[in-house]
């Protein structure tokens, strides 16, 4: 080594890394007592955080110290066991630790040749997830940032296949003048697959939106009628785990109807697809394995650090042909597959490594226990609240979602605001069956019964105070 060469890590840079590690440990260790609501919202955060680009640089350690001081008050409690908003996994510590390695390794993980260990780890992860989710073991899998991209990729693959069935080559001729593709989805669909319809150029305004029952399950007779009106093979989007109710569409009844019409079924299973990994929950998603493609998040029920999701297609060639930057090309399956052949990205971090570490840590039984526990806790919350002083649980609690309404919309919004302001727990808002709701999603790996009882107590106390 040349005597005047810069060391790979200066003392200042080492101190910065050590400071970040200490802060990360202290942050996670303090979650039990910390406020779940951020101390400041965007306007206040903008006033706190340095916005002027400095003319000269600062030491790395000083940058980290300043960043911690300025940004921490605006960090939301997404990792807290008392956070019940949206459907946010808690970023399990073993996954967060693995993510530190991912960042330090600095791998561009799109190439198995350039990053062999990551490619092998991610291919193993994909195999484990197909096994756990009980989907076709030979399926194609792309590790993406989350369910929005996963849904979009699957819809693009479906688009290309459905056009080929009509004799149209989308790669060569694009979409101008292409045959129509009927698109069918439910009126309770999440925004992620709806965005995918737009991104794939299929036109959300042209899609047929079908009625659901009071749990958000698409009606079979509505699908039958829509299919009868299709002149071309359709794309039908179903869901496992409606975001307000946790309910899943009747896959076993619908998928054969779509296939008989020559169509493609895509399932948005961002969190609900994990029910297929748990024996007692599996009947709620019966038949989901018969679909043509699936989207699932790893940063939801697996509790992987953001961002991580899977796009899965029954036929691997369909995914690779649609996603490969080299066009209609299917590489041979060797010891490893090329990660970039199954995603839109030619450059990305090794986002599958933390999920691999989490599954090594949990094992099959640990994953089942966590998902089952969350569903039991959701039922416990519903039992604590339903029928108490004008409070109603609007959904059948079949999974981990609880939709809570007070005696009127104004009271529901007031109770939610009071609970969030108290900052001991954090449920989120929503609408269901035409009513404002307090939506509680029980999905954090560390959440226990005491956290659920605190959530129930906070909602009941706020409701009682406001009624009085």
Tell me what the CATH architecture of the domain at 99-356 is: 3-Layer(aba) Sandwich
Shape: globular
Tell me the total number of β-strands.
12
Mean pLDDT: 94
**At the first level of CATH, what is the class of the domain at 99-356?**
Alpha Beta
Largest sheet: 7 strands, mixed
User: What ranges have pLDDT less than 50 throughout 5 or more consecutive residues?
Assistant: none
Strand order of the largest sheet: 2-8-7-6-5-3-4
Question: Could you outline the blueprint of secondary structure elements for this entry?
Answer:
Elements lengths: L10 H19 L12 H7 L11 H12 L11 E2 L8 H13 L10 H17 L7 E5 L2 H18 L5 H4 L9 E4 L4 H9 L8 E3 L9 H9 L6 E5 L11 H10 L3 E5 L24 E5 L11 E5 L2 H8 L29 H33 L6 E2 L7 E5 L3 H14 L3 E7 L2 E7 L7 H19 L1
Parallel strand pairs: 1-11, 3-4, 3-5, 5-6, 6-7
Antiparallel strand pairs: 2-8, 7-8, 9-10, 10-12, 11-12
Helix pairs in contact: 1-3, 4-12, 5-12, 6-8, 6-11, 9-10, 12-14, 13-14
Q: What is shown here, in short?
A:
The protein has 468 residues and is of the alpha/beta class. The protein is 41% helix and 12% strand.
Describe the structure.
The protein is of the alpha/beta class and 468 residues long. Among the domains are: 11-76; 99-356, Type I PLP-dependent aspartate aminotransferase-like (Major domain) (Aspartate Aminotransferase, domain 2, 3-Layer(aba) Sandwich), CATH 3.40.640.10. The protein is 41% helix and 12% strand. It contains 14 helices and twelve strands. It has helices at residues 11-29, 42-48, 60-71, 93-105, 116-132, 147-164, 170-173, 191-199, 220-228, 251-260, 316-323, 353-385, 409-422, 449-467, and strands at 83-84, 140-144, 183-186, 208-210, 235-239, 264-268, 293-297, 309-313, 392-393, 401-405, 426-432, 435-441. The strands form two sheets. A seven-stranded mixed β-sheet has the order 2-8-7-6-5-3-4, sandwiched between helices. Strands 1-11-12-10-9 form a five-stranded mixed β-sheet. Strand 9 and strand 10 form a beta hairpin. Helix 5 (116-132) runs parallel beside helix 12 (353-385) and helix 9 (220-228) runs parallel beside helix 10. It is globular and about 65 Å long. The mean pLDDT is 94.
